Amino acid sequence: MASKRETSTAVTDTAEDLVKWLGSFGQSKSGGVTRPLYSEPWMEAQHALQKKMELSGLETYYDSVGNLFGRLEGTNPDSNCILTGSHIDTVVNGGIYDGVYGIVASYSAVQKLRKQFGHPRKTIEIVSLCEEEGSRFPITFWGSGNITGNYSLQDAVGKNDHNGVSLLEAMKAAGFDPETYQNPKREDIECFLECHIEQGIVLEKTATSIGVVSHIAGQRRYTIKLSGESNHAGTTPMHFRKDAMVLAAQFITYLTDKAEQADSDLVATTGKLTASPNVSNVIAGEVTFTLDVRHYKKRMLDQFCREVLDHFHQKADHFGFALSYHTWLEADPVQMDQDLQAQMAAAVREENLSYQSMFSGAGHDAQMFGSFCPSSLLFVPSKNGISHSPKEFTSSQFLEQGIQVLTRMLYQLAY
Amino acid sequence: MASKRETSTAVTDTAEDLVKWLGSFGQSKSGGVTRPLYSEPWMEAQHALQKKMELSGLETYYDSVGNLFGRLEGTNPDSNCILTGSHIDTVVNGGIYDGVYGIVASYSAVQKLRKQFGHPRKTIEIVSLCEEEGSRFPITFWGSGNITGNYSLQDAVGKNDHNGVSLLEAMKAAGFDPETYQNPKREDIECFLECHIEQGIVLEKTATSIGVVSHIAGQRRYTIKLSGESNHAGTTPMHFRKDAMVLAAQFITYLTDKAEQADSDLVATTGKLTASPNVSNVIAGEVTFTLDVRHYKKRMLDQFCREVLDHFHQKADHFGFALSYHTWLEADPVQMDQDLQAQMAAAVREENLSYQSMFSGAGHDAQMFGSFCPSSLLFVPSKNGISHSPKEFTSSQFLEQGIQVLTRMLYQLAY
User: Fold this and answer.
1) Looking at chain B, which residue has its C-alpha nearest residue A138?
2) What is the ipTM of this complex?
3) pTM for the complete prediction?
């Protein structure tokens, strides 16, 4: 590994080399990667990335929550900053492209421009953002949320990971002591550009190189706690039971059927379920499960979630269960900047590539920036549409094509 | 706690005192008890029980798997042994009466007899058996299975707990080194008597003091592994998904509906479910869940399980999921000895108590002994039928009534 990471600092790295290099931090046996926010592999990856940006001539720094910046100073002192990048935190056993590609694309584009044209008029900063996934702490976009002023330190209070470690403890352990917190909100961002793998199957199905994102779907995430009665699995007749596993199973089936009927662009998922006591010969007295619901129209999203939660409450009351839920993400659909969309489409044509306008079902940091500054999101194809999985893959060709388009846009915006 | 355990060695302990005393080993915050086989609290409880039996004049010893015996020698050297007892291992956060009452009843009955009548003709042994629940290792009745020759050391191979600790490692850590294993199978057992809380609601509903168990329901336990495809919760359209959580939910609903229609005495439970990666924004690629099915007629039990598993396989194949299952318990229904049932009924009448004949939906060590030697099982009422829960409760009066009947039976059998 060491030698691999040595050689990776060569200046001739392709985008694929760089993605694989970052994928070596937190690599799982299955070939995937587990790199939760503030974990050791996450810190190693941030530090390695910082070193790499410094070696390539960028000034680097962290803000108070651990967002890493690599700055190429503009010659015009009065200019605002063009921000570009993505995130390196991952889901558990996720793929190596998600998030990382956006950072690699920004880094590669800036390298090309610096070598060919030197310093830009306007400052360009590459950013590696914190907790885009929300897979360690229930606060997605923690990094971009701080930069855009949607979050500040108080929003971290009471947020714990699956092991009961608090977000504040984890920040401190990673070297970002909440005691020294200075609000990372920026006032000097002119626009934000992000490249990302599609994580869906649309571009592949339509044999298109580039997706120009028009808007990002809104998301609602809930944690639902259902309490029945734990009892002996052998001596409790079926009709005397309050089995939380059984009612949770009915809820998941209801949710899925309703989502399939609602709208072909709506998705609803229970990805996480925890039963208690979770023993084979004991009726589950309590089940906690998550809901993740997404659509690009706010009205449709709100109505669907309201109807689902109403149904859950009615059934729980009817069968004498206690039900409570916690809403921990309410992200409304976000439009990407229309001028930047047009500029991206033009850049794609100038590179003689194919593109299509599309919406994103996945959340991205660009949606935090979308309501803060003109923002733009570019997709490259994902093989079989698979992501958040070790099977995640995008060919070297597509990776480089996305970088060509980003490079052209950054040139037009900053030089 | 220490002082509590001190005073508990007084000879005037009531059954309730003794149950609460043993309940103090592995006590959980919620007032329940978690005392898995070979764990520290389990060993502490066994050692405390051993000390108590020695103080009361019994010879004590362990066999190679950790079954603890307290022996009151018979005056007739040619006599076989009357074995009586139960278990002290518990489910996670279970109640304090399950298993423990049977040991307390045997201990109390033997104390009364020894004080009043001295040594019996036939040897009486009190036994505290290992892993009746199967809640740490997937091998229920490990202790009674060794005594009756249903299990030996080779059956322990490959059995791991939830943390991946093997049964053999755990035995060794608890002081029962597999290297020194000597087969605990007994040739000198004349009969086995067990007292237990009902763990059901029948005796309470019928206001009856004693249940004379006619037979113990058979059980089948399976672990089922369902593999679909892990993918992004936001970008994978509903109709492209292979969501293992969704299909598992349908299976649980199917199982429950079918059990409710099958027979009022049949019970089927999924108590344990584990999803992977178990993250809110990732479609579950894999779900593993348990089946626990019980009925007192072998044919009904076999047919039900066959039909359920066939259905699971058909649906999994139809939707393109991989399904595998492991059968880790196949216990057929077991008859209790009819002469001992008649003798117990007579003993109840002599004590001027009420009784009824009933079957047991729960598994008990008596079912291992049932096909090995004449065996008998006595129930006392459980409040609200609740067990395997901190809410488990049986009144002091019922505890003592069960002991009256056991004392009378042991007198008739051994003196």
Assistant:
1) B280
2) 0.74
3) 0.74
